[in-house]
Amino acid sequence: MAGPLSGLRIISLGGLGPAPLASMLLADHGAEVIRIERKQGTELSNSEPMRKDISRLMLRSQKLTILNLKNPDDVIKFRALIKTAHGLIDPYRPGSMESLGIGPDVLLADNPRLVFSRMTGWGQTGPMAPYAGHDINYIALSGALAAIGPAERPIPPLPLVGDMGGGGMFLAFSMTAALLHAQQTGQGQIIDCAMTEGAGLLMTAFYELYATGDWNIDRDANFLDGGAHFYTTYKTADDQFVSIGPLEPQFYALLLKKLVITDSDFERQMDPDSWPKLKIKLAELFLTKTRDEWCELLEMTDVCFAPVLSMAEAPSHPHAKARGAFATVDGVVQPAPAPHYSTTPLACPRSPQYVEIDTLLATPSADPKPSNTVTRNNA
């Protein structure tokens, strides 16, 4: 695999949500990622179609193997595999790995350079640590959920803020930092990565705005949360939606010019008291044309405009196609690896490959051959 992390071996224990995303990002960047599954039998055969209980898209470009970490013989193999690895992703509850006899003290003794990454919602310590939770709970505790949604009640924004952004991407970044430190010093370490803290970090700019008095704690009442008439979505004549976001005065002026708006009320762009009335006026205006007609008028200009596309539509947009933002792997359309690197470009992803554990131990650096049915969706 190409990519700046080529040459690194990461072991990822089977999990959901943030751990698979982190594994995917590391694999996209060229690391050899081996996911340990607990299921037995032929469920992980290479010819099997996508299953509902594991995300094969987030397992792309990875090797899958089976180990029962409650079996002493498999634990021996697992520890042997860890000795060849640079990093480990542990998605289990606090204390789970210790109960199996393979906690960080044991594995770091086996491999002092190991980055032992622990991904949980609440963290390894604190009064909430032993208890179950999900994305909605983690972002609720961080302050993020209270800021998202209409005035009437908070709305969970898909599991993107906690699981994916505050979890998986936070974990991938922290692992990369610790892996760099290990390469420089030869010293591994333990990472305690909590989704509620990652979600809190994503809210840093808004905590600053709140501290300076520039953010209303009420929802749907601010310039970036849908409260403003110039930063929201509008329904079109064909029951589709468009988005606008001209924050800067020059972009806002261009929007008014494009929409042929001469109403003096619109001159009060930053007056929150005017926003409800101006939103009603813009809503009526955007209902006069279809989404495509608005795209013809406003897209590819500085008015800060884009159509609201579904997942079925997004891969076909000209900009996405021009940048190869989506790829087709074995017939399945999915977001392509990103970002774009000048010296270590990322390869197109391949479907996950099942590999016997004994093969991995015998050939620790071997990669399965790339799929022959991978295409990057350029124009």
In short, what is this structure?
The protein has 379 residues and is an alpha/beta fold. 33% of the residues lie in helices and 15% in strands.
Topology:
Elements: E1 9-13, H1 18-28, E2 32-37, E3 63-66, H2 72-82, E4 87-90, H3 96-99, H4 104-110, E5 115-120, H5 135-142, H6 161-185, E6 189-194, H7 195-202, H8 204-211, E7 232-235, E8 241-244, H9 249-258, H10 275-286, H11 291-298, E9 305-307, H12 318-323, E10 326-329, E11 332-335, E12 353-354, H13 357-362, E13 374-376
Parallel strand pairs: 1-2, 1-4, 2-3, 3-12, 4-5, 5-6
Antiparallel strand pairs: 7-8, 8-9, 10-11, 10-13
Helix pairs in contact: 1-6, 5-7, 6-7
